[in-house]
Amino acid sequence: MIAPASPPPTSARDTILARIREALRVPAPVPHLKSHSAEQAVVPAAASGLPALTVLPAEVAKPWLPDGGDTPAERVRIFTENIEKLRAVPCRVPDLPAAAEAIGALVRERGWQRVAGHAHPLLEPVLANLPCSVQRVDGSAEFDKNALEACDAGITACEAAVAQTGSLLVSSRTCGGRGLSILPHVHIAVLTVDQVVATVGDALHLTRERAAGRMPSMLSFITGPSRTGDIERILVLGAHGPKELFVFLVG
Amino acid sequence: MLAKKQFLADAAVRTRDTGHRAFVRKALGGYYTNRDLQKARYRDWEHARDAASLAKWSAVNRLDELLPRFVANFEANGGQVHWARDAEEARTIILGLLRAAKAKAIIKSKCMTSEEIHLNAAMENDGYGVVESDLGEFIQQLRGEPPYHFVFPCMHVRRDEISDLFGKHLGSAPTDSPEELTMIARRHMRRLYVDADVGITGANFLVAETGQISITENEGNARLTAALPRVHISISGIEKVIENLDDLSVLLPMLATAGAGQPMTCYNTLYSGPRQPGECDGPEEMHLVLLDNQRTAILADPEQRDSLHCIRCGACLNVCPIFKNVGGFTYGTTYQGPIGSVITPHLRGLADWNHLSGASSLCGACTDACPVRIDIHHHLLHNRRNAARTAPSRLERLGHRLFVVAATRPWLFATGGAMFRRSLGVLKALRPPLLKDWLASRDLPAAPAHSFRAQWSARSRGRHSN
């Protein structure tokens, strides 16, 4: 991109890669581990000629990380408990019309004037029922960040939800781009109960399968409303992103 | 020697400042509670540490293979990679990108590598205005100070100081509410995100298998920085590469729990490149600056190579008795605390920075707290050993030789010991130059009447007679 005024004899890339190869000629000791799986995990030499240690952390670490639940009902229960602790608001609704009704009521109660949303099968009934004007953020019109900034709330779908951590996974491809879930003061997410997976790894694998070789340019785990502890380590919600996060669980 | 003198002078002042110490301890109090609560949710924290440690070990030791793989995948997604051997090269690259983008307004999210290369000063020298968007970094920018702690940049600042600061720079009314202060910054920053044409961020992990950059943050400022400006520039050390998304799924929760006592940091975002066809927003260009800046020197030391496993969670600072007493600024480094004391001598020279290795009680709290099992406190010993080898102190060597002479001759050891016990009181009163510094912060206990060996044989005799 940027051509240096006088090109150096060797490129920075070649120099750095040569330094790395040189540095790795002496192998490092295997880390001291508490478990015995380390010895079992030693697999044949890698390209560098070092004994490579590889475990499959998603498989091996699953029983060590926080529990994400084994059945769909357990996953929904753990997810709901976790997002409550994170000060997000879970709202369980039986079907989409009920979600549309509840979100409409929320908009009326708060007196919101303009709410942003995007094209998605789960959101169509919701956006159609909103008692305020709707800002579409889905490529149907030129993206206008000023208009999005002026919205009271943003409504998005999700790629998945993670029980283990109480996270939502949104993407730039299916959830209204990058700005919609972060710029408005309130984020409302709509998802079905069968979108709740157990672990962070499960959510990433699911998304990768769906992406079929080309990941969205942005994938974001959202774990509760925006927060900061920068002032005297005291928790404050709504630092730069949404102050409130409503999660409508359909089903 | 300048760095050492500054360290000793600042440490002496800070350690006596009991108000500062109490404030820092109070601020960290909640951290311990939350961390332990979250750790208890892990079905096996120690095994999870093993998995995290192995993920980083296997990536760092295959950097020659994984770094090019990451770069190929990132470029295939439309991102542009720039390699920087050192800080100056990185600054030149970034200033070049700003010129090419005709940047007018730059918004920046928290990025320690940018502190390492002193990027803000370079951008300001070239006439660019830049705003730090992370609340803590914003406060530090207004104060004209570097971060105090590489995860909690302004944890040493009281709310009334922040209120005064915002009053002076933003014209806000005084308040003692952390929430209101946060909202003042929020209101101030919103227009800046929308108006910025270049966004600069750091990176926490580079995922080789997918070519994605992972950024961890709580406030949403990095999300906004990478969403709204036309150009996104990310700066990362080359050691941030991990192999795959499985590794990431272990490291993300552990980073949050170890560093801040959270189940997961509020936003963990993966960027694979600029806006794609069919996406409604996002930057047109995405650049990644890959920084060496002496990291390959650490890589070349197999004994301390694992210090490149560091995920910058800050846990070792939070638990360190030295950090809590001398405070973050005393270190005089970009990376404070135990891990900073390990890596700074490699990044900036052992001769000038070895004194940090002595700023440790070797209690091992840092090693225990490390989610990726870096052998931190032993590396401090390794640094001390290396410094003794490369630049031995004549006085220390003389002392050790005298000790060897005495310790290998029992009669001399006994005579010397007896003389020392008798003269201890005199020494304490006289305060000769060598002892004076030592006594300045320590108390010399009274010597026992009899030597250890004499007491031991007296006891043994007693036992036998029973």
Describe how the helices and strands are arranged.
The complex is a heterodimer of chains A (251) and B (466).
Chain A: H1 12-23, H2 37-40, E1 42-43, E2 52-53, H3 57-61, H4 72-85, E3 89-93, H5 96-110, E4 114-117, H6 124-128, E5 133-136, H7 145-149, E6 153-156, E7 160-162, E8 167-171, E9 186-192, E10 196-197, H8 200-211, E11 218-222, E12 227-228, E13 236-237, E14 244-250
Parallel strand pairs in A: 3-14, 4-5, 4-6, 6-9, 7-10, 9-14
Antiparallel strand pairs in A: 1-2, 7-8, 8-11, 12-13
Chain B: H1 2-16, H2 18-41, H3 45-60, H4 63-76, E1 80-84, H5 87-100, E2 105-108, H6 112-116, H7 119-125, E3 129-132, H8 135-143, H9 159-170, H10 178-195, E4 198-201, E5 205-207, E6 212-217, H11 221-225, E7 231-237, E8 241-242, H12 245-260, E9 267-271, E10 285-291, H13 295-299, H14 315-319, H15 321-326, H16 337-348, H17 350-353, H18 355-358, H19 365-369, H20 376-390, H21 394-407, H22 410-430, H23 433-440, H24 452-465
Parallel strand pairs in B: 1-10, 2-3, 2-4, 4-7, 5-8, 7-10
Antiparallel strand pairs in B: 5-6, 6-9
Helix pairs in contact in B: 2-12, 3-12, 9-10, 16-20
Task: Give a description of the structure.
The complex is a heterodimer of chains A (251) and B (466). By secondary structure, chain A is of the alpha/beta class. Chain A is 29% helix and 22% strand. In chain A, the strands form four sheets. Chain A has a six-stranded parallel beta sheet with strand order 3-14-9-6-4-5. With 466 residues, chain B is α/β, with parallel strands linked by helices. Chain B folds into three domains: 119 residues, no CATH class; 232 residues, 3-Layer(aba) Sandwich (Rossmann fold); 70 residues, no CATH class. Chain B has 24 helices and ten strands. In chain B, the strands form two sheets. A six-stranded parallel beta sheet of chain B has the order 1-10-7-4-2-3, sandwiched between helices. Chain B has a four-stranded mixed beta sheet with strand order 8-5-6-9. In chain B, helix 2 crosses helix 12 and helix 16 runs parallel beside helix 20. The radius of gyration of chain B is 26 Å and the shape is globular. The termini of chain B are far apart. The relative contact order of chain B is 0.12. Chains A and B meet through helix 1, strand 2, helix 3, helix 7 and helix 8 of A and helix 2, helix 3, helix 4, strand 1 and helix 5 of B. Strand 11 of chain A pairs antiparallel with strand 9 of chain B.
